[in-house]
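FORM 7B: Structural annotation worksheet

SECTION A. Query
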Amino acid sequence: MSAAAQHLRTRNSRLVRALAAAGTGVAVLALPLVGAADAVAAPAAATTAATTPAGYPNNLDGWIRESLAIMAEKKIPGTYNGIYRNVIRESSGNPSAINLWDSNAAKGIPSKGLLQVIDPTFNAYHVAGTSFDIYDPVANITAACNYAAARYGSIDNVFGAY
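SECTION B. Predicted structure
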């Protein structure tokens, strides 16, 4: 083995031993040690989960929790499980879902969003403080729960198309 190769092997062995002894907590610091001086940290958005403007995760769980917080303020009954069950049945969790084949669609007012609300119902049961966009997940959930509360007592009492 050449002297240069032996020197490199010894240096690499020391680095590996140091990392093994220190654990994974030093792995971030090891990047510059192995020649990545030009490495750039990932943008903050790529390292953290996206959130709604209210700070909830920008996913079905976060939309339901944000809606429940608004519903609690407005005294609209409903539970996480009741909302989740209906969302999965109505749209499979797709906030862009639109029904173009049922009787509402035939009348020109298709059901839209997570809880498949038609425009007149969304407008009548819109909850102040939420978006006026029927496809906005939080606005859609909250308006649908407001409608379900008026008609059925709670979204928890809805077990089919409503």
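SECTION C. Observations
Helices lie at 3-22, 27-33, 44-47, 60-74, 80-91, 103-106, 119-125, 137-152. Confidence is low (pLDDT under 50) at residues 4-48.

SECTION D. Sign-off
Analyst initials: ____
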